[in-house]
Amino acid sequence: MKIFRQLSVIGLVLLAVTLSSITHAGTPKTRADGVTVIHLDEYSGYFSAHETVAGLKPGKYEFVVTNKSDKLVGFQIQNFKSQETLDMFPLEPGEQRVSKVTITKDGVRFRCPINPTPWYDLDVIK
Predict the structure, then answer these.
(1) pTM of this structure
(2) Structure confidence by residue, pLDDT tens digits, 22-40
(3) 103, 125 in Cβ contact below 8 A?
(4) What is the 3-state secondary structure (H, E, C) of 6-38?
(5) Quick one: fold of 25-122?
(6) Domain boundaries of the chain, sorted by first residue
């Protein structure tokens, strides 16, 4: 019985540590000028968003993109429907750049055009 109690306590401690290390994406902040800011970290082969990209609305956005890899990467953002490129640039290791775009109800998609990354489709803009 004593061993069961000790194992239960250890299990609860491990669960608490695990849950406390999970981070949740925040809600994008819209500045007084009406521009919504989304921070993206780009690694070798994928992006990580600081803010949730679900449920975006049409409007003006700034994507703050930071290269977190040890090699040259890039950022390309397109209109989802027409596939017109809205912005595209390279990023050196550790470099941060801002992409200022207007998102319509057509949605957008982004990727790294230099390294093989999938398109990140944001096609449900309401």
Answers:
(1) 0.77
(2) 456 688 888 999 999 999 9
(3) yes
(4) HHHHHHHHHHHHHHHHCCCCECCEECCCCEEEE
(5) Immunoglobulin-like (2.60.40)
(6) 25-122
